[in-house]
Design goal:
23 helices; mainly alpha; 4 strands; two-stranded antiparallel ribbon; single chain; disordered C terminus
Length: 437
């Protein structure tokens, strides 16, 4: 009982500290002068004029290559907003941006760069229900770089972190699991991930959280600190993300946790392991929800804006829609359909074929782990639960929410590789002798 109370108290303190530190950081970046930021944002207008809203890097038939220029434009406009709309406190909580009538945010950047030649109505828009934590890195970078430059930096950063994580997975778990991670990364489309700021938050959080788990697994486990690990992942998601594919930030680290536990021979019974899935998921959800709600509460307390009401209305809309009559099955089909394209079919079939060949050549053997399979299968279902819960958002934004299925892909590949093992030379010779007899 004392441990439970202590855990609750420490979690509450953790959340409160993160809320106030997060707010302080937003206030600090809103103190940055915006003249150079504005120049660099508007310097990106030519790119957005060319790409438009639904730009697909590999062509329109491949939805997984869609870049979310709508939200990227929103982020850039928020970053360049000057401080003339009110006090520092109001600006940091209301998160204004300019807009033009009937124009997407990326289109508004183009019009603003042209000094609005058609005299389209211009106004300020508030987007107060999110923290906009991305401004912590975006505003300083925009002092020096335009959007194209930040994309290049994002590409370099992604590849450095992803290949470091790949190295750690191979070193700590083995080459097979390195293949599982690399495949999962490929189905998320590294080019699109590098080309859209909207996708950065969750993907970088996955990379960093996974690296921490692989580097410090034993220390975290010895201190029984996994609830705080998942709590803080959820907090970071609530702070940085604009509601993209959050479930991956839970699923991938959770799979790595179990793989490392089995590797370090610290696995527990099926019941205890399922209990850990429930507890860690709960802590992730508490961190996510509490941090996000922290912005609404601060805005409600410090300004006249009804932030809580606005946020709850939006959440209900994303779950149920506004008269669209979208079913959970539609949302699931839309997201799964993105992966049912020939490049991914060939990729998955190729991996399965290699495994079958290695089994037939007796270089690998079946080594079934029923408990492990059940646990990974449960985690593989997480994205489907997410799509059912927020079906409206998942259905209309399937071109990026499909990345939630990275959890499913990673889990199923880990199931496949967990149930086979390399045969020793002695085992192979025994089998050869028995066949000869």
């Amino acid at each position: 009982m004392k441990k439970a109370v202590r855990l609750i108290v420490m979690s509450a303190v953790n959340i409160l500290i993160c809320v106030f530190v997060g707010f302080a950081l937003i206030l600090l970046v809103y103190m940055i002068p915006t003249e150079h930021i504005r120049d660099n944002v508007l310097h990106s207008a030519e790119m957005y004029q060319y790409e438009q809203v639904g730009f697909t890097i590999q062509g329109p038939q491949f939805e997984f290559s869609t870049v979310d220029n709508y939200t990227d434009g929103l982020m850039l406009l928020t970053a360049m907003q000057n401080n003339s709309t009110g006090s520092l406190l109001i600006n940091a909580l209301y998160n204004y941006r300019i807009g033009y009538h009937d124009e997407a945010p990326n289109g508004s950047i183009v019009i603003e760069s042209q000094n609005n030649p058609d005299n389209i109505q211009k106004f300020n828009i508030s987007y107060a229900r999110y923290w906009h934590g991305y401004l912590i890195w975006m505003k300083p970078l925009l002092l020096k770089f335009d959007a194209q430059g930040i994309r290049v930096l994002g590409m370099f950063s992604q590849f450095i972190l992803a290949f470091f994580l790949l190295y750690l997975v191979v070193a700590k778990l083995g080459l097979r699991y390195g293949v599982a991670f690399l495949t999962t990364w490929l189905i998320m489309n590294p080019l699109a991930l590098a080309s859209s700021f909207q996708y950065y938050s969750i993907f970088y959080l996955i990379l960093i959280a996974s690296i921490i788990a692989l580097l410090y697994w034993k220390k975290i486990d010895d201190r029984a600190a996994w609830p705080f690990y998942f709590l803080n992942i959820g907090i970071a998601v609530g702070y940085f993300d604009l509601f993209t594919y959050p479930i991956v930030s839970l699923g991938i680290p959770l799979i790595l946790y179990f793989l490392l536990a089995w590797k370090n021979q610290r696995g527990q019974s099926l019941t205890n392991s399922i209990g850990k899935i429930v507890v860690y998921t709960l802590f992730w959800g508490i961190g996510y929800g509490a941090m996000w709600a922290g912005k609404w509460i601060l805005t409600e307390l410090l300004t006249p804006y009804s932030a809580i009401r606005d946020a709850l209305i939006e959440i209900f809309f994303r779950m149920n829609g506004r008269g669209e009559n979208i079913s959970a099955l539609q949302a699931i089909k839309a997201n799964v359909g993105v992966l049912c394209k020939w490049p991914f079919v060939i990729l998955f079939a190729g991996i399965l074929l290699v495994v079958v060949i290695l089994l037939l050549r007796r270089e690998w053997k079946l080594d079934l782990h029923k408990k492990n399979t059940m646990l990974l299968f449960l985690i593989a279902l997480f994205p489907f639960a997410w799509y059912v819960g927020v079906k409206q958002h998942s259905c209309i934004h399937y071109y990026f929410t499909y990345r939630g299925l990275a959890v499913t892909v990673f889990a199923f590949l880990c199931i496949l590789f967990d149930n086979v093992s390399e045969q020793s030379g002695k085992d192979r010779s025994k089998q050869t002798d028995s066949v000869a007899l």
